[in-house]
Design goal:
This protein has 280 residues and is of the alpha+beta class. It has one domain: q2cbj1_9rhob like domain (Jelly Rolls), CATH 2.60.120. The protein is 20% helix and 23% strand. The longest helix has 15 residues. The chain starts with 8 loop residues before the first helix and ends in an 8-residue tail after the last strand. The structure holds 2-oxoglutaric acid (AKG). 2-oxoglutaric acid binds next to β7, β11 and β12.
Length: 280
């Protein structure tokens, strides 16, 4: 289903230096076709498990056609998405890149940018998980279509994972200037911006560090741009005992009474070096 990428010294060093890694081959062709078909059902509200995803930011018939469509935690609603985002090799890749002893799924996203589909603002993923200790993350981004700059592919700022963590501000979905926060920051802190576009065939992959600045522009092509995303955290992460702002309002629903432990039913362990894994 997915390729076991060996993170040899060179690839690992590249990730450490750049804050991201891009590869042309990750998903099997069969998986791509099937998941692309599943996207339609999910955004129409047809959930094969009968369970609604945690966030559902675009609905067929309700929202404007040119918005980038997003669902968070589609794995709870669809078994094929679950098989992918909970895959052991995906967890292993994330853990190895981040020098963790294991990886757990914090959340998935499915993203569908239609022709003309609007921007997603530059941000750092780890800025959104201040309700987790340690506040860190790595993201595995898996396009189901060939992606390029003109399709509004994902883009990274090289080396920006060394700039420190900034709390999120501004509008995430469809801002007019999706680079505004990045430009403000680089001006204030005199940072050099070197952008890398993820340009790979369908079934490729990119991994990025939770501190890496990234975003995406308008899809100016006539074709759709779909991606499945897995956001992972260390397997031994806990809930922050007190932080409740932002997305914690949604995800702290899953906090047990008198415990900061993350429940595997909602935050499954994908891989650990001791061979521990949630039976999803
Ligand atoms: O696909 C995109 O345009 C944005 C994805 C993203 O922000 C992420 O995967 O962290």
């Amino acid at each position: 289903m997915i390729k076991d990428i060996e993170f040899s010294g060179d690839l690992k060093k590249k990730f450490d230096d750049q804050g991201y890694l891009i590869s042309k081959e990750f998903l099997d062709k069969k998986v791509i076709t099937n998941l692309a078909y599943k996207f339609k059902n999910l955004f129409c509200g047809k959930f094969e498990t009968g369970i609604e995803p945690d966030e559902w930011n675009w609905r067929q018939g309700r929202d404007s056609e040119d918005i980038t469509r997003q669902i968070c935690n589609a794995w709870k609603s669809d078994n094929d998405i679950k098989r992918l985002v909970c895959h052991e090799l995906l967890g292993k890749a994330c853990a190895k890149l981040m020098n963790w002893s294991g990886a757990r799924l914090l959340q998935d996203n499915i993203l569908w940018k239609p022709p003309g589909g609007k921007t997603l603002a530059y941000h750092q993923d780890a800025a959104y998980d201040d309700w987790i200790v340690p506040q860190t993350m790595v993201t595995c981004w898996m396009p189901l279509d060939d992606v390029s700059k003109e399709k509004g592919t994902l883009e990274f700022v090289k080396g920006s994972h060394r700039w420190g963590l900034k709390p999120p501000t501004g509008q995430f979905h469809s801002p007019d200037d999706y680079k505004k926060e990045l430009k403000d920051l680089s001006k204030k802190e005199k940072k050099k911006i070197e952008i890398q576009y993820v340009e790979v065939p369908a079934g490729g992959v990119s991994f990025h560090h939770g501190l890496t600045w990234h975003g995406s522009g308008i899809n100016t092509s006539l074709n759709h741009r779909r991606a499945v995303v897995a956001h992972c955290i260390p397997s031994n992460s806990k809930f922050h005992p007190s932080n409740v702002g932002g997305t914690a309002r949604i995800y702290k629903r899953y906090k047990k009474l008198n415990s900061n432990e993350l429940d595997e039913s909602f935050f499954p362990i994908l891989w650990t070096k001791e061979g521990i894994r949630t039976n999803v």
